[in-house]
Amino acid sequence: MLNYKKSLGQNFLIDQNIIKKITSITQINNKDIVEIGPGSGNLSQNIIKCKPKKLILIEKDNGLVEILKKKFINHNNVTIINKDLLELDLKKIVKKGSIVFGNLPYNISSQILIKFLRQDSWPPLYSKLIFMFQKEVGDKIIANSKEKDYGRLSIITKFKLNVNKCFDVSNNCFFPRPKINSTVLLFQPKKKLSHKIKNLKNLEKITQIFFSKKRKMINKPLDIIFNKNKVVISKLNLNLLLRPSEISENSYYKITQLFEKIVERK
Ligand code: SAH
Predict the structure, then answer these.
(1) Distance CA 234, CA 240 (A)
(2) Do residues 80 and 107 make contact, with C-beta atoms less than 8 angstroms apart?
(3) The CATH number of domain 200-265, selected from 2.60.120, 1.20.950, 1.10.8, 1.10.287
(4) Which residues line ligand 1 (CB under 6 A)?
(5) Do you find a cis peptide bond into 221, omega within 30 degrees of 0?
(6) Model-level pTM greater than 0.90?
(7) Which CATH superfamily is domain 6-189 in?
(8) Of the four listed, 57, 82, 105, 258, which is most buried by Cβ atoms within 10 Å?
(9) pLDDT in tens, 186-224
(10) Beta strand ranges found along 104-203 (DSSP E)
């Protein structure tokens, strides 16, 4: 039986039906594919059956990399990279049009998604991301304003990506079995962004200020961001009595845009 490391978020997908369902979300034949955290290669094996042009596997765990090397020794279109995804330069690995799969390590799943969003040039080289998250995180990513789970993750993600929920996956489909269910999401880069935001970190910072005090009215965070400059704040045309979860994603993009303009002028 395989040893597994909780610290690396290792929950291996063992249900063949779910594995097939994931690889049939999009056409793989003759495409460049990247897989993050392939583990012992359950999903990878099925990707290979769908005849990709190339498959790049990125796995941090040395022990698992040895297993993968043995398993795929006869496949010369498979490359295994034994590195931490968070420390890699994506531009050097992801070719134009690539599809990226990942049953993501849950402890760093949002960080991985954010890494794919922070790419400077847009649209990015990848054409699709097909990621599995723990269901709670998936719910946060797809939430709309006024919904319970709406917050930073949905606002930041939807700025750059179109998001579709594919399906939920029961915790019974994994070994070891996690406590919670999972969700598979499909992301496709927006060709054109609705607002000019120079640095995504500013959107991250602005939403952090609002959502660290979720229950307070938005006049407070706006005062902090714009130094109580009422003239500037009035340009946003927002009802200042609303709460952070009650204003749209677009409002956050507008606030960030205005913030960048003002900071630049200083
Ligand atoms: N895809 C496999 C395993 C998923 S578990 C399956 O579905 O069966 C998550 C995997 O991500 C594990 O193999 C873990 O070792 C790997 N991993 C964890 N942190 C990582 C990181 N920072 N970079 C790359 N891989 C990582």
Answers:
(1) 9
(2) no
(3) 1.10.8
(4) 8-13, 36-39, 42-43, 58-61, 64, 84-86, 103, 105, 108
(5) no
(6) yes
(7) Vaccinia Virus protein VP39 (3.40.50.150)
(8) 57
(9) 999 999 999 999 999 999 999 999 999 889 999 999 999
(10) 128-134, 161-169, 174-175, 182-189
